[in-house]
TrEMBL record:
The keyword Iron-sulfur appears for this protein: no
Molecular function, one GO term: hydrolase activity
InterPro entries, alphabetized: LpxI, LpxI_C, LpxI_C_sf, LpxI_N
Residues in LpxI N-terminal domain copies: 15-143
Gene3D superfamilies in UniProt: 3.40.140.80, 3.40.50.20
Alphabetically ordered keywords of this record: Hydrolase
E.C. designation(s): 3.6.1.54
Leader sequence residues: none
Residue stretches making up the LpxI C-terminal domain: 149-278
Name used for this protein in its record: UDP-2,3-diacylglucosamine pyrophosphatase LpxI
Length: 282
């Protein structure tokens, strides 16, 4: 175990951001800098978006190059780290781990072959053993976390609320198997559940299955016991756009455990399209 980072002064340390895709890595970096701290971004090759990370100190690292990743974090005096942005899980063949990566794979053991949450939880533990403190993105993006109740002008009716109740049961059942965070329910019928394809493709599939009756609801929640520091449910304008295209009536999400990539844009688009955004009282 490496421990020198534990002796590092908080004020002298930077926050390392392990960046996948999307805009959230840049938003986290901006908030950290606004707090008077520096950042260093580890941009995962093939996933991080150049326009998002370009304004900040960064280096590109492929997923399997754990030795390079850890070395860069230490060279840039990173003590706290944030994992943010989607990354597609590679096969062992594609991963091509370096020497340190092979050691970490050995430490992960069976966790590498579990669902995403089991793998991420194991990675968080290993990073802690290496002397880093893993922080959740929501700790920096307070205003981007979904709120309880109706967000916007549209209120779910009784049919939608019943669909949300069923969706909660479905996701909790799926979550125990570490499968997915979302499903679509229409008038008591489950149209689709999320698996490896992700929420957006699942919504499209649900639209193809929609029955000739009122709408349907996207329900998106954290899995039971999910490691929120590494993987929080995320909703963005593209999610709302896909909900509209699929003919759904709204979105039910978990308040306090859902990140919005652009909350005001999501609310505005939902209002324009008569779609509700509803933080579920669990």
């Amino acid at each position: 175990m490496n421990t020198p980072l534990n002796r590092m002064s908080f004020h002298n340390s930077a926050v390392g951001i392990l960046a996948g895709g999307g805009v959230l890595p840049g938003q986290v970096a901006q908030k950290i800098i606004a707090q008077g701290r520096s950042v260093f971004i580890i941009a995962f090759e093939g996933f991080a978006e150049e326009a998002v990370i370009r304004p900040f100190p960064h280096a590109y690292v492929r997923l399997g190059a754990a030795g390079q990743l850890l070395s860069l974090l230490r060279q840039n005096h990173c003590q706290d780290i944030v994992l943010i942005g989607p990354v597609r899980r590679p096969s062992l063949l594609d991963l091509r781990p370096d020497k340190e990566g092979a050691k970490i794979l050995a430490r992960l053991g069976k966790a590498f072959f579990r669902g995403d949450d089991g793998l991420l939880a194991a990675l968080v533990n290993i990073l802690a053993e290496e002397g880093f403190h893993v922080r959740g993105a929501h700790e920096f993006l307070h205003e981007s976390v979904g709120r309880l109740g109706v967000m916007g002008k549209i209120v779910p009716d009784e049919v939608a609320l019943h669909d949300i109740e069923l969706g909660i049961k479905v996701i909790h059942a799926l979550g125990k198997l570490d499968i997915g965070q979302a499903c679509v329910v229409q008038s008591g019928v489950v149209l689709a559940v999320e698996a490896m394809e992700g929420t957006d493709k699942m919504i499209i599939r649900a639209g193809e299955c929609r029955q000739p009756r009122p709408g349907g609801v996207l329900v998106k929640l954290a899995k039971p016991g999910q490691e929120r520091r590494a993987d929080m449910p995320t909703i963005g304008p593209r999610t709302i756009d896909n909900v509209v295209k699929a003919g759904l009536r709204g979105v039910g999400f978990e308040p306090g455990s859902t990140l919005f990539t652009d909350m005001q844009a999501c609310i505005d688009l939902a209002d324009q399209q008569n779609i509700f955004l509803y933080g579920i009282d669990l």
